[in-house]
Automatic annotation (TrEMBL):
This is Septum formation initiator family protein. InterPro entries: FtsL/DivIC. Pfam families: DivIC. Keywords: Coiled coil, Membrane, Transmembrane, Transmembrane helix. Residues 88-118 form a coiled coil. Residues 20-59 are annotated as: Disordered. The chain crosses the membrane at residues 67-87. It comes from Candidatus Limousia pullorum.
Length: 180
């Protein structure tokens, strides 16, 4: 557990011989790592990116084109989300109005059924016949009151022809009459 809390850098170049020629690490790098290892031994605190930038004296520069593109992309995302939310709100309102109209339709159908049953019970055939017999003094028609009409005197067909006004049409009609 004690090893997890430490943030020390290990310099393996300390174990190498300086006289050997197969060393690939340049001398200047070795000196930096030795001084960095000594500094790490003296001060075991972790550096942050802000500390490094402050030491360098540099501030990160932002490109105006990148900032503008980020702002436009952000506005596009916000606009898309606003459109989706507005669409969902309208959809919810329409669903509520459909539900209200459906409930109103059910009530009207129930009322229609109820009124239809009342009308049928009041004006049934038996009740109308009884009212006509008792109140109006009417009775059913008998055979001697019925008069039958005969409409079948045979089938007739009449052809209407126009009278010819000139002699040529009468000759043509006569010739066609012969051939037919």
């Amino acid at each position: 557990m004690a090893f997890e809390e430490r943030n020390l850098a290990y310099d393996l170049s300390l174990f190498e011989d300086d006289d050997k020629q197969y060393t690939t690490v340049p001398q200047s790098t070795r000196e930096k790592t030795k001084s960095g290892a000594n500094a790490a031994k003296k001060k075991p605190s972790a550096e942050t990116a802000e500390d490094r930038n402050a030491e360098k004296g540099q501030r990160k520069k932002y490109s105006p084109l990148k900032v503008l593109s980020s702002v436009v992309a952000g506005l596009f995302v916000v606009g898309a989300l606003a459109t989706i939310i507005m669409g969902q709100a309208q959809l919810t309102e329409l669903n509520r109005s459909i539900e209200k109209k459906t409930e109103e339709l059910k009530q009207k159908q129930s009322q229609y059924t109820q009124l239809d049953m009342n009308v049928r019970s009041r004006y049934s055939t038996a009740i109308v016949e009884e009212y006509a017999k008792d109140e109006l003094g009417m009775s059913k028609a008998t055979n001697y009151q019925k008069e039958f009409v005969n409409l079948s005197d045979g089938d007739k067909a009449e052809v209407l022809t126009e009278e010819s006004q000139n002699i040529f049409s009468t000759i043509v009609d006569a010739v066609t009459g012969i051939w037919s």
